Every structure is written in C-alpha cells, then in structure tokens.
C-alpha cells in the first residue's frame, strides 16, 4: 500500500488509477457531485433528528427476534461476548467508514463510490438494488403487523382458542394438532399452502394491509428527510417505551428468571465453532445496516463538521444495548410461556399417574409426591422421578422439559406471531398488551423501512438531476412499484417467498458490496488519504488503529464471512420450513429447481452492477482515450486541482475563493481548511494529454 503523496504545483500525478482526481473528499464542487444546480441540499433540523434516524434504521425487527434467538442457541453470554468483540473490531470501523464517506462527499451511495473512482460506481447501484429487494419483503412484515394490530381490538383475542367445525361440532383438526396461535397464523392470517410449489389465490386482506403499509411509507417520505424525520420522533422512541413496559411486566411473571438464566448461561465451548462466528458476524453486519447505502444517505445530510466518529460509537452502542434489552424482554416472556406449558404437562402426566395408581397394585416406581393434587407438583420433582422411573411407564407418561419449550418458536416470525401472541392471550387485559406489542413491531419496521427507502431514493436523486427535481413523483412511483411487485408475497405461498428473499437476496450481495467498499477506501483511495480527509472535517485525526482495521481486519473478516456463507449455501443446500395442513406441524423442504434458479438470479442481479460498472468504465476509456472522465449525469466536467498555500500567502483575487452563504454557513463547494492552511487553484496547462492518467480520489 503506497502512502499519500503531497500535491505540488508541477502537476505530478499520484499513484491512483485512471480517471481519479487529487482533491480530498471535502474539496469536491457541487457540479462534480451531481447536485441539482440552484438547489440547496436538505439538512437535518437537529442532531437529535439525525441520531434518531440512524438508530431507527439500524434497530429493527432483527434486534427483537433474531439476536435473542442466536444468543440463546449459541452459548448465551459467550455469544454476547463474541458479538461485542466483532462489533468493536469490524462493525464500528466499517460503520464509521460509511458515515465519514457520506458526510464528506455529501452524496448517496452511487455518488460516493463513483467519486472515489468511476470504475466503482457499480457498488452504489448494487446497494440500491439490494435495498429494493429488502423493501419488497420488509413491508410485507409491516403488513402482517397491521393485520394483527387490527385483530387485537377484540376480546377475547381471536387466537386464544381453537375454532369449532360447524359440521361436526368438534374442534378443527388442524388447530387441535397444533395450537390456537399457530392455527391463526398459518390458516387465518396467511391461509398458507403446503409448499412453495402450490401458489394458491391472493389473500385480499393482506393485500389491503400491504397497500396501507406502502401508503404510510410514501406519505412519510414524500418530502424527504423533512417529513420522515418528524415521523422518526415517534417511530424510533415508541419501541423503547414498549420494551421497558414489557420488561417491567415480564419480571413479575412466574418463570421470568428461568428465561433469563437460559439466555445468559455462558457456554464458552461455542467459540470453537466456525458457524457461531459466521452467525455473530452476520448479525453485526445486518444490525448496523452496512452496505445498504442508507447509512451513507443519512450521513450525507449532515454538516461537514459533524463528529461522525462519535456518531458511529453512539449508534453502535445504542444498537447493542437495544439488542440486550430486547433479549431480556423476549426471554422473560418466553420463560413465563415455557413454564406454563411445562406445568400444564406435569399436571396432565400426574393426573394420568393418579389414574394408573387407582387401578393397579402397589409398584416400586410410584412417585413420592402428592398425585391427588397435580397442580402442587413442581417441575423439578417430576423430572427427578421421570429420570429414574419414566422408562417403566412410557409412552403413556412423557417428560416435561422446560428448556425444550424455551427453544420452540423463538426465531423470526415464529417468535412474534406465534410465541408472543400465545403469551399475550395469557395476560389480563390481553387486547391491550397485544395492541401495544404489534404497535411496537409496526414502528420498528417503519423506522427501518424509512432508512431502506432512503438508501434507494437519495442516490438516484443525487446522481440523476431529473429525478432530483421530481422527488415526490419518484417517491410515489417507487412505492407503487414496490406494492405491485410485493403482491407476490400476499398469495397463499407468499410466506415462502418472504423466507427466500430474507435468506438469500440480501446476504451475499451485501457482503460483496461491503468487501468492495472496504477495498475502495483502504486500497484504492488509501487509508492515509481517507484519514486526512476526516481530519480536515473534524479538525482532529482519528486513531491510527482504524488504518489497520480497514486494511486488514475488516477486509479479511468480510472475505471470511463471504466464503463461509457461500460454502454453507453450497454444502447445506437451500431449504425452507413449510406448514403441513394435514399434520398441523412444520417440516423442512428443499426448494424446487425453479426456485433455486430464482435464488441464483436474485444474487446475480444484485451483484452484477459491480463488475458491469467496472467493465463499462474501462471500455469507455478504451474507445475514447482522449475524453475526460465524466463524473455526473450531465456534461463532462474537468476537475480542478488544488494545492496548499502558506497561511501568509495572499490568494490571487481571481482564484477560487471560499464561498460563504448569506447566513454565514460555508458552502459545500468549499475545500475545508486544515488549521491555517489555504488552497489555491493550480494551472492545468499541458495536462489535458495526461487526463487519462489522473485520479478521481475522494
């Protein structure tokens, strides 16, 4: 890696490749950035708005239903320590890198990477495409939350009891084989088919909920951050209020401490498992929203002097603490649910034992506890007896394992729409708690959805002046397109497509995007230059440890995650969990061939812009070697070169002086001074013939 070379008046070219400039991030004029002439870039009204937006985007449904599951399944407290380690050495540096790049260049993802090098413009387009994938299925989850929210205003809740078959006057067989909450989710909400190969008709109620979800997103974003930021005050804060309410209520429940114990009990041996490291790295990656371009987009609306390093530490810390808070809430509630199920199991088995004892002679395996009052028997006493004598009376008598119940339905939609709904039905005033819970899910989803859409709209408006002039039309058309394509997920087999998109459409492409982002900053532009640019913005230099984290640790970690994800996909094979209506239970199936082709196409299409952008730029310069690099959607622009002057030197009055707006705010086109240094325009005489060899660095 070559270090940054000083710029001098001789016009000597840097080491960087063709088409790159010698200006720092903050030196880029608005014309190069592609901003619409005559229009000021929107800005956050306050720092609180910005922090709430970043927190709202990064803290999503995954914090509530993915992190607790991984923590419990992979060593409890040991997994949490591993997560903190990877968050510190990989997550925070990459998050800081995206924040700094967006704030410096003041562009969306397309403009940022195009500015570093035109050959890298495909990174931004890949980010936009993946954001669109995620928005398609993420809004379906919001639609499900709306459906459950609407059904929460009933007493009793519609999923409290199994319905009765009107023809036979008996409990519906599918519900009796499963549970009321599972039956309501799979049959009433989704009306799901038995496999992805059975499409079935569209669900009109969910289609209406999806339309409502997209309408909410469109209305909240129709005026950009000016409208969405105001919604963030509620959508980002309200989930924390609900989580604390549930935590206080949950700690009062019987079994709450059992849930916390199962969650945090450390099993350090899991550190030797490659899959656990992969899952922890993936969770860090998605928790911070790396690669989407949303972090860059939000940061681009900041003033250049904003302390983005502090923001990176703050948002990452809040994200982790939210995951811990959500885990506490989830496991006190699941502990209560599991203990209720286990006690019910004990009561049923003790009742059966009591019946056996009343019809048989004295046996040595008869229990020592009081079988005449099944509710008085503790789980520990029953399990101790079962371990010693259970084999003699099986299969009539079964085990009642609290931990097994803790492991059921604690991941993804199973947690939110099955396990939690079951617990809500056990609470006094159950409609109130159910309404509160699904209102929380709705706000968590919306705040993340706003960030995801911002990752699509901001780069397009920054890079294409026509779209920038028609923000409202672009927002409405994008949401309308998302709704039309999203109807795919409202058919009876739609849940299987949601699973497919969630598992495969984003993971690999996003990791590829972040790999190229890291290479771009660390090895193409150069970490020393990047740190110089940050120093020019913040007036202090970040610790040098970031240089080595970006160049080696982060890059190797992302390459390892990419390799592990590819190997797992190849050797394990893509599978999905289907619902069998006849058996009333879930089963794991392999995707059919056409679905595998669809998965491959989703990954290829999202990753394709990276090589296509590189090849297109190479071919363009190959066939037109004399043409200067084109940095924006309009005419070709020659970049200006600047060099440092002594603070005592008088700048030429005809040179480019720093522009100051009427309110005293420094223009975006100004190259930020470092200390008392100034910059003057260099002569470009005789450099046209060398244009092909110039850099386009940040």
UniProtKB/TrEMBL annotation:
GO terms for molecular function: metal ion binding; symporter activity. The keyword Metal-binding applies. One of its GO terms (cellular component) is plasma membrane. Its main location: membrane. Pfam families: SNF. One of its GO terms (biological process) is amino acid transport. It is found in: Membrane. The chain crosses the membrane at residues 50-68, 80-101, 122-149, 205-225, 237-260, 280-301, 313-334, 432-451, 472-490, 510-527, 548-571, 591-615. Keywords: Membrane, Metal-binding, Sodium, Symport, Transmembrane, Transmembrane helix, Transport. Na(+) binds at residues 56, 59, 63, 319, 444. InterPro entries: Na/ntran_symport, SNS_sf. It is a multi-pass membrane protein. PANTHER family: SODIUM/CHLORIDE DEPENDENT TRANSPORTER (PTHR11616), TRANSPORTER (PTHR11616:SF233). Belongs to the sodium:neurotransmitter symporter (SNF) (TC 2.A.22) family. This is Transporter. It comes from Nothobranchius furzeri (Turquoise killifish). The gene is SLC6A16.
């Amino acid at each position: 890696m070559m270090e940054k070379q000083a710029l001098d008046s001789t016009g000597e070219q840097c080491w960087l490749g063709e088409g790159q400039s010698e200006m720092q991030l903050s030196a880029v004029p608005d014309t190069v950035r592609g901003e619409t002439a005559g229009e000021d870039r929107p800005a956050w009204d306050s720092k609180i708005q910005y922090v709430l937006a970043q927190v709202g985007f990064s803290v999503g449904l995954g914090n509530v239903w993915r992190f607790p599951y991984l923590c419990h399944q992979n060593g409890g407290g040991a997994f949490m320590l591993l997560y903190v380690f990877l968050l510190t050495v990989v997550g925070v540096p990459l998050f800081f890198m995206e924040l700094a790049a967006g704030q410096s260049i003041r562009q969306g993802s397309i403009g940022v990477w195009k500015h570093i090098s035109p050959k890298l413009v495909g990174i931004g387009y890949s980010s936009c495409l993946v954001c669109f994938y995620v928005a398609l299925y993420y809004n379906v989850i919001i639609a499900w939350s709306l459906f459950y929210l609407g059904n929460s205003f009933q007493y009793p809740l519609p999923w409290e009891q199994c319905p009765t078959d009107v023809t036979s006057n008996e409990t519906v067989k599918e519900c009796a084989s499963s549970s009321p909450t599972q039956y309501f989710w799979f049959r009433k909400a989704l009306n799901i088919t038995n496999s992805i190969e059975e499409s079935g008709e569209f669900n009109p109620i969910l289609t209406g909920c999806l339309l409502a979800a997209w309408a909410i997103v469109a209305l909240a974003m129709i005026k950009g951050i000016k409208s969405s930021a105001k919604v963030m005050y509620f959508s980002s804060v309200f989930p924390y209020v609900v989580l604390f309410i549930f935590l206080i209520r949950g700690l009062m429940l019987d079994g709450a401490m059992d849930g916390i114990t199962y969650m945090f009990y450390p099993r350090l041996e899991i550190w030797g498992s490659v899959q656990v490291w992969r899952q922890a790295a993936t969770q860090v990656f998605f928790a911070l929203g790396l690669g989407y371009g949303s972090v860059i987009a939000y940061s681009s609306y900041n003033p250049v002097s904003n302390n983005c390093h502090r923001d990176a530490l703050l948002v990452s810390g809040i994200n982790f603490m939210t995951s811990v808070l959500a885990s506490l809430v989830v496991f006190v509630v699941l502990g209560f649910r599991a203990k209720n199920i286990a006690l019910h199991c004990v009561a049923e088995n003790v009742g059966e034992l009591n019946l056996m004892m009343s019809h048989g002679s004295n046996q040595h395996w008869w229990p020592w506890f009081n079988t005449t009052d099944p509710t008085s028997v503790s789980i520990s006493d029953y399990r101790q007896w079962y371990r010693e004598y259970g084999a003699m009376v099986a299969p009539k008598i079964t085990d009642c394992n609290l931990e097994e119940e803790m492991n059921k339905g604690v991941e993804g939609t199973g947690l939110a729409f099955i396990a939690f709904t079951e617990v809500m039905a056990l609470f006094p005033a159950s409609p109130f708690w159910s309404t509160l819970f699904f209102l929380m899910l709705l706000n968590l989803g919306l705040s993340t959805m706003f960030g995801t859409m911002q990752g699509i709209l901001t780069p397009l408006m920054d890079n294409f002046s026509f779209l920038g002039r028609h923000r409202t039309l672009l927002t409405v058309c994008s949401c309308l397109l998302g709704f039309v394509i999203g109807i795919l997920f409202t058919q009876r087999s739609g849940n299987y497509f949601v699973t497919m998109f969630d598992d495969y459409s984003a993971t690999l492409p996003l990791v590829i995007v972040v790999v190229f982002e890291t290479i771009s900053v660390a090895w193409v532009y150069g970490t020393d230059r990047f740190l110089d640019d940050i120093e020019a913005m913040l007036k202090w230099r970040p610790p040098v440890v970031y240089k080595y984290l970006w160049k080696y640790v982060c890059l190797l970690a992302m390459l390892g995650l990419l390799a592990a994800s590819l190997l797992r996909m190849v050797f394990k094979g893509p599978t999905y969990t289907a619902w069998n209506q006849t058996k009333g239970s879930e089963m794991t199936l392999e995707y059919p061939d056409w679905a595998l082709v669809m998965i491959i196409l989703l990954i290829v299409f999202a990753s394709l812009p990276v090589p296509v952008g590189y090849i297109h730029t190479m071919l363009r310069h190959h066939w037109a070697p004399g043409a200067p690099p084109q940095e924006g959607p309009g005419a070709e622009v020659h970049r200006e070169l600047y060099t440092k002057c002594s603070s005592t030197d008088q700048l030429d009055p005809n040179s480019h002086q720093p522009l100051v707006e009427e309110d005293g705010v420094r223009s975006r086109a100004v190259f930020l001074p470092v200390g008392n240094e100034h910059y003057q325009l260099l002569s470009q005489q005789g450099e046209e013939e060398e244009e092909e060899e110039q850099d386009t660095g940040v």
